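Input record (one chain):
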Amino acid sequence: MTREFSQRDLTLLAANPSLHASSLAPARAIIIHDPTDTLLQVLSSKLLGSCLAHGLRIYIVAKIGRIGDIDLRLRPLAYHSQLQFLESTRLKQIPENCARFDAGPSYAPPAALNIIGLTGGAPAEDEILLRRAFADCTQLELRKMDSGTASVFQGFVTLRDSRAGPVPLPFFIKVDRYPKASKELRNYADCTALFVPFDARPNIDERRCLLGAERGLIVGNFVERSEALIRVVERSASYCPVIDSLFNHALRGWRAQAHWRQDPPPAQAMEPEGAIRSFRDARFLRKASECEAQSRRSNGLTLSPTQIGDMLDALPPVVHRRALAHGDLHGENVVAVDGRAVLIDFVNVADGPLVKDPAALETWLFLKITSDPADWARTADELYSWSNLVTLPQSRAPTQPLSGVWNVIRQIRQFALSEQLTVGEYAQAVAIQLLRHTLRKDPGEQDHRRPTFMKLAANLAESLKRTRSSLA
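The corresponding structure, as predicted from the sequence alone:
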């Protein structure tokens, strides 16, 4: 084996379980042969994660009868693509596999790369990934940006040896849990490059995007001179050019597929997995109970969010167009640059109704908009009435309360209602989004508005039930 490695310009060295970053940095792979139970415990607690964070391919070689047991002992990291289980008889494959494997950039120690702005509470793996991704730099300064569950930064670097100069344009840097980061990188590769215009999305730097054991790093060019759509909507009076740019430019590559498919769309459920899907877990059900109590006090509503969701799920399948949807389209995942829309955050891209993205965007904007409480409640009842969801609402004069967001939502509905194939299709998508907002707990959301959204969702569910019964 030593000779086979040397013939491929690789060196095979003995290692011990207390491997340090300095020894992992130049490595390409680690081979663990017939591990004892004690070593498996060390692997699962420390060594395995460190090797994966440094990009190493890990080969665990054992008799075929033990591989299943070892796989179970190393869960949940055993699913990782860099972890390979091999039967003892296949040991000779490893040298050639190692020679062909690219472990990515090596770790830059603190003496080589100074990182500014990474807080002490960040997971240790985040620093390893950053030191690998920016190993060609002498300094990385991170500036935290508002985000959801991920850590998102604007990054400024000083390059060590660049033909163009030492200070490039800023990066966006996103660190998230491995499953979400891995999914978003797949979505970038499969769904954005050929379908979302290059000026309507950040462009990722594939050389700097890394997956570790439990964390993942996504790096790309930072969208400069940008402003969140919600800020633009707050200033809009009667027309928002960013909305036209969003649907006619940024999203057109996905949405057009619904018209280019060969077969006519069949009748099917709007949300096959259910209106509130993952929102049924204990955390969201607690929120549902709170919202239900508020709604009973303020609106006299007797239905729970789960019951409203069941009403929507019980509606008969309808004919509607489907295509890829952003999946989390809201006023901070759409940013404006010189009057055009740029999409960010592609982790939730998936097939869905063509009316899903417009419904998600408009309900988020209306939930977040700043307003007098009485004006907001009156406008909500009018804007989300059945008549204003099956036909386009009239434009509002600039002197009327909430005219800006009303007219922006009217713009959004022009795109949504024009794609309807079934009466009430868009109203059903809106009801689902209204209900989800009552259960979603995001920082800064206005809890006192949730009962209104819940009441509106219940009203739409009742109207949809009556309409579909009459059509049947």
